[in-house]
Amino acid sequence: MNCFNYHTDALVSIPKEKYGALDLGGSSLQVTFEGKQIDHDDTSLKLSIGSVNHRFRAYSLTGYGINDAFDKSVAHLLEQLPQIINEDLVGGNLEMKHPCLQNGCKEPYSCSRCTSIHQKVGSPPISGKKLSNGGKAGVLVQLVGAPDWEECSALAKVAVNLSEWSDHSPGIDCELQPCALASNLPRPTAQFYAISGFYVVYQFLHLKTDAALDDVLEKGREFCERSWDLARNSVVPQPFIEQYCFRPPYVVLLLREGLLITVSNVIVDSGSITRTHGVALYEAGKTFPIGGKILSYELLRVKMNPFIFSAILFASLFICYVHFLVWGS
Fold it and tell me: Are 321 and 278 contacting, i.e. CB atoms less than 8 angstroms apart?
């Protein structure tokens, strides 16, 4: 049963609490939250359903998805190498130790961000290669496990810190300014449902959704301390299993230092509502009948960056989801 039929009455009610959503994908993080005031910029969104007005901020942090974050970690390690033999790099024979891979792990990896870094250091451009398992095209390297939890956590922080990936920004003090946010993006403030990639990490570590972030780190460390054979045989076979030592510290640091969101303000959830419902709400909800009356659904359109469009669609989806969570069936 779709979102409209299931919770029609709740759509025109005012929630008791304000909720936001953190939707962690493979390539980006979608941030959506509601506030009392809204600025007229490319992150602002006003939605009206009947007499209820919703004022949202929504934006997409490209490169902050869990797969792209790991790609950042590999690119950073490549940049730190004292000397790169171009023949090895072109031939895909370069071996790099990675502190977030277990002992005994040796995996080919196609690093998309490494192409630009390789060119930056003055080496001739190389053509991107794509792995047979469908990974992104990039520089092919051989990653070798050299587990070190402290170094792995530090590498995860590098993937979170915006200034590490900018030619213009100075280093950011993460205790004062969210590391993952440019100065023009509003700091997220609300109770948040962390879904998608956050939920996947919790499930992988066999954690309950109300587990503390310190529990994520503890379970992640336990997984990382296993040998590669023991680690991969201890879970159901799945894609990117070699990245699950990196992911626990990354998701924790993304919340704590990247967005400056405290654990008390986060609820991990499966996000069991699809983007299809959001599009349906956006289109069909412009005018729909409730109790014999026609209620309007209005969207204040603003000039929008294409990278933010998916976050805006997610905002319309999330209205329905929030009402479901607050009011129930």
Answer: no
AA letter at 8: T
Task: Kindly tell me if the per-residue pLDDT of 56 is higher than 90.
Answer: no
The predicted model scores a pTM of 0.78
Cα 218 from chain centre: 21
Q: Is 244 helix (H, G, I), strand (E, B) or coil?
A: coil
CB of 70 closer than 8 Å to CB of 239: no
Kind plus residue range of the DSSP H or E element containing 307 = helix 306-327
Of residues 206 and 127, more confidently modeled: 206
Give every strand in the sheet of 95-98, ordered side by side. 95-98, 139-145, 106-111
Above 90 in pLDDT, residue 310? no
> Does residue 121 contact residue 84 with C-beta atoms inside 8 Å?
yes
Closest CA to 283 of 46, 34, 4, 23: 4
3-class secondary structure, 100: coil
Q: Whats the size of the chain, residue-wise?
A: 329
* DSSP state letters, 119-183: HHTTPPP---B--TT-PPSBEEEEEEE---HHHHHHHHHHHH-GGGG-SS-----TTTS-TT--T
**Is the pLDDT higher at 115 or at 13?**
115
Residue 298: CA count within 13 A, CB half-sphere: 11
Q: Domain-by-domain residue ranges, the chain?
A: 3-64+180-209+269-327, 68-147
pLDDT score of 259: 95
Which residues contact residue 14 at a Cβ distance below 8 angstroms, ignoring those fewer than 6 apart? 52
- How much is the pLDDT for 83? 73
